[in-house]
Amino acid sequence: MKNFKLFFFAILPIVAVTAFSACNKDNNPDPVVTVIDITGTVTDQDGAALDGVAVASSNGQNATTAADGKYTITGVEKAGALTFTKDGYVAKTEFVNNRTSINVQLVTTAFTETTYEEVTFEKACDAGDMDITEVTVTDRGEGTGTLTWTKNKVYILNGFVFVNSGQTLTIEAGTVVKGASGQGERASALIVAQGGKLEAKGTADLPIIFTSESDELSRDVDGNLCLGTSLPASARGLWGGVIVLGKADITAATETRNIEGIPSTEPRGIYGGSDDADNSGTIEYVSIRHGGTDIGAGNEINGLTMGGVGNGTTINYVEVFSNKDDGYEWFGGTVNTKHLVSAYCGDDCFDYDEGWRGKNQFWLAYQADDTGDRGGEHDGGPSDCETCEPYATPMIYNVSSRGNGNGRAITFRDNAGGEYHNSIFWNWQRGVDIEVRASIADSYDQFVAGRLKFTDNILFQIPDRWMTIGNEDSGDVTAEQAALDAYFNDAANNIKVEDPQLNADLSPVAGGPAASATLAAPSDGFFENAPYKGAFAPGVDTWIQGWTRIADEL
Amino acid sequence: MKNVLLFLLVALAVSLNAETGIIRGKVIEASTGLEVIGGTVQVDGAAVGTITDIDGSFSLKLEPGNYSLVFSYVGFAAKRMEGVEVKAGDVTVLGDILLEEASITIDEVVVAAKKIQTSEAAMQTLQRKSIKTLDAISSQAFSLRGDNDAASAVRRVPGVSVQDGKYVYIRGLGDRYSKTTLNGANIPGLDPDRNTVQMDLFPTNLLDNIVIYKNFTPDLPGDFTGGLVDVATKDFPEDFTMAATLGFGYNSQVTFNNNFLTYAGGNTDWLGYDNGSRDFPAQLNNNLPTFGDALSNPAAASQLSAATLALNNELAPSTEAPMPNHNFSFSIGNQKSLFGKPFGFIGSLTYRRDFSGYEDGFTGRYTLAQAGVSSLTTQRELKDSRFSDNVVLGGMLNGSIKLNSFNKIGINLLRNQSGQSDTRFQEGRVSGGSSDGVYQERTLAYQQRDLSSIQLKGEHALGEAQKFKIDWISSYTLSGMKQPDLRFVNNFFEAPDRYIIDPAEDIPPTRFRRTMDETTFDNVLNLQYDFTNWTGKKGNFKFGGAYLMRNREFREQTFRYENFEAGNISDFKNFVDDKNVFSTENYSGVFIADFSEGRNQYDSDMSILGAYGMTELPVTANLKAILGARAEQTILNFTSFSEVNPINDEEFLNEWNILPSASLIYELVKDKMNLRLAYGHTIARPTFREIAPISIFDEIRNVIVSGNEQLKITEIDNYDLRWEYFFGRGEMISVSGFYKQFSDPIELIVVSTTGGGTPEFRYRNLGSVLNPQTGELIFTGDNQAKLYGAELEVRKDLAFLNLPELSIGANLAYIYSEAPIPQDELAPKQVLNPEVSDTRPLYGQSPYIVNAYLNYITESGRTKASLNFNVQGERLFLVSVGATPDVYEQPFPSLGFRVSQMVGQHLDLSLSLNNLLNPEFKRTYEFGGQEYYFRRYQSGSSISVGLSYKIQNN
Fold first, then answer.
1. Is the pLDDT of residue A120 over 80?
2. Please, which residues 7-26 of chain A have a Cβ atom closer than 8 Å to chain B?
3. Are residues A327 and A301 part of one domain?
4. Is residue A4, in this structure, part of any structural domain at all?
């Protein structure tokens, strides 16, 4: 009821004065007048007047503030804008919107700079107490800056942390990066914006680990590993994930799009363009664990999300472990990958959309017994542009894909193409689904056109059909199924249904069916000579040893 | 408390001194419809008389007997009324006495005493005489047509339609461009996304009249374009009045239907509010541990599972047959002497409970996936059952006192409470789901709204011949909206008992709590000076101002169930129990997580300062002009509690708008035919929600909606031409044409987002393009939307067919609107459909609106019947993503019939039949000549009976 103190009598004089003064001016505004004069005061974040602030209008008028912070600028377009700049302060643009008085507050750049807050403390580790330095990184719009994160510190991502355009974030081998817990706008994630670069080069001995704040795993001030109670493999969604956004071509009706979960109010969330050779940096020997929380409006985040990433980028030896959503998801782009592990994820292991066209070799998909959807979920264009080009045509060699007996090994739909060769798929409910729709183009059309291939693979322990026409329209698909059956049975396609004979570490038993392959991967400088089926060579240690979390579980 | 109130009302209402009787009436100028202030009322042949007061009203206390009264005023022909009977202890009400301007031929008119009530004809006098284009409905019309709330009553006005039974559209322009006031003062709406008030909050028995202004004049607030609806509460009853009503209704597909969906609520639901039964348990509000905490700390783990189990486990609808709809109301009023001054009061209490819904509805989602196809691709097709239980409880107390003949002040207290419980179950097929099972969606919702307002108002006449007039109102309103526990669950079901909740596929089961509180303080002051100019006609100068302050607080809590492993629920009734709740044993199981976000919590303040000057100027004997301008200053400040991008009381708007207006009224035939021409410049402000630069998930539409702090105020130029002809008591015909041009209208535009992600919509001014790299709006010149329309209204009795008891009325509006589609939204459409139109109708705009009625009333007025018909053309409901056709709401023709019969002196019985045609409510996509349903249902026909008992002297 405090407003009631402003009883109407109090405002009578104001109203009366305003009534008469307002009537004196501008009773009939001339519609052709488009420029006006503007006055105002510029203050800092504490309300103190700022002098020497340059005021520039969008139509080229200029003014400067006086000692009392006041300025007058003439001849400004009513529909234009004023920009206020002063060294040490963040520039601010105000739309005029017919206003004749515009007061502005400028904040110092220090106020919006990304903060790195360090704290060193003693932590109980398996090997005794160790000194740990934690650095909490908070992005206030400026991004990480161009600098190196080192392994003698643990970096905590406090919310979304962007590598802005023009910045390069280097992460030293062995560095532990942790995501703070929280969902929605509080979700933590490392996001490489268009034009930014991430140079994260770990080694098999010193992998870079992205995990949750709740994970005891750390490195001390000397770079030694501190272990404690390990998070259970079932811990998913404790933080966000890693997102890389590039400028390569995507299949969409617009040149750029906003990545899911980051609304248009954050312009650093866009991806797509026309530079297929775009380079977003290097991600090597990186393990991304226990992430996948909802980063906004029901959009759970993938372990590694790649939006329009170009093939100048290097992605090799990456693990996503116990992510709540998909392990990896590509939205268009051309990036190539090698040695990817997607293990214990809550949704699909490998997912692509919007016309991705990368080359890939040595993938491991491994589902937990109690959760997970598909091994591969592959879509073409988005629902408003399914037949748009470029088509999704990634080439994938040497995949080991082990389900939990419930999901499907691969679904191709929405006009997605793609090739799988020299691979093993076992312990799925269903094998490969290729969708057909009566009225519109779908992945079956890509299959007929030869842009969807599945040869030299082994299928095992899949109770439903090996290769199925996924029928979305309940029409008659007998002919399509027959064509697919013929493809499956064609000896030239070399699809085997047999026990691949794998060791406990998933490498093929020497002399077994998976230990050799007749199809050679293209020799184009990217693919390696790997004359076996699945991700692992026979007779040698698997490449997941030493740096992945899943290697502990097998 | 309420009992005390009733007692007071009755105590005040006790009858008059039995020795004498009272005559009351009101004197008005026939030529203008305005009250005569300071007119003389003389009892013929006696030295007794009085003068009319600020309302034009008078009151004379006389011994029982028969009298002749003479009414006179300078410049007007006196009128003698004979045979006015006064009974001991009674009030004789004369109603309106019209004085004609003096002429040479007539100096006195003699009439017989006859009671005239507040009538449709009197309202029509106001309509005829007003220099504004307005339409009005009287309290008599409410009861004749059986309209229970203001929403159903306003539908009878030309060009007015009502959406969702609540929101007024005038000339098909949605709530952004329409406005509602109570006694001339702003009252807030209760929906955070809308500008206007839910009209169903006002039961008609509290109301004196509803006036709809379609033209801007400077004395009205400048932020309406379609129309301004002013709801006026009852003021001075002329005599003791008391009415009680009771009604029951039966709906063909709801009442006694055993499949009616419901869920356990609180035991005060029937009173329109939740008694706290839906509040979240304290464990959720006090440091609920996160999953991460629980994994590293066993105490936190047990705290988390305890909190999860503490939540009400009811997440699925149950069924129970509802009782018939019912309602009652009670109102009482009188005019008494208080401290020797005339004091009028009215109090009322009203209650309604309505059950509605359907069980065989349908919802569908479709997309156009590629060029050259002949059909849309199915995304989901679900069978839809939805039932609602809606309670409205309202009370009003209005007191007015005349300090003397020329000074009147009043107070109005209003309290409305409404609660709606909604239960919904949908089931069917979705494309690309993780399971081959049936998809199911369940919603259990409760929404409570309340509004409390106190208004102080006054009217004063000063100076010689009362040439100066002042009126003012100060109105303070507290309003609130609460959704205490909105439960939203979806899953796949595989027979016989496997429920799959897959968080990767859709949003996990979620519970929301939302509250919105608003205070609105509005002050209006009008000063008027009357003059008589060279034409010999009266004109005036009017000045005034208004100051509005509005403050809103919006809060939202979101909790989600997490960590469902596929297939672990076998019984929906025990959604979470000891067996599947999170435990430290293997660190798995279901837990509740706090998903509340700071960006969804906001405060906002808006102040609007307005001032105007205008004149009503007779130019010639037949031509009157109204000229003037209003200036309004809008200041809007916004605070968001986002933890990432907090906004601390930032000023998003600070703008002056000058709003000129000019109208001409030319009397073609005296008192019968007018021609009106009007121009006005008006504005439409962005709402708090639209200007807030935050992105909020709308779980009903399953989209993200983002605001934009760069939004401009929309400016509109309005042109109107109207011809009208009044040719008998309550008979008229009018034809209007109008043109409106919108600069920078605000629209909700689709943003291009990752295909699998949640679609995003964002508010923009038309013609502005979003630079995705910088987030800046670039204003292009292509910012104009246009609207043209024509309106026809006819009211006629059928006496010429020898059927004087019958009258017919019809009004129709035809409107064409066009807004360009912004280039960045058009480009994706053109990829799949190069032929796609680059314009579309204004959002929510119907191309036509038709209202028609047939009324029957016997000469005694004891038997009444009416047949009403209403329909409006298809209107844009949803702009689709990409090239998929937009969704339109299809015409919903509504036919109703009501008959009532007086029995004895006080009792009135009525029977109503509603929604007789029972058409399908449809929202559709149209593609390749085929209709695809976005939503479809029938609401069923209903029959209701009513009983009303009324005491009114005379």
1. yes
2. 7-8, 11-12, 14-16, 18-20, 22-23, 26
3. yes
4. no
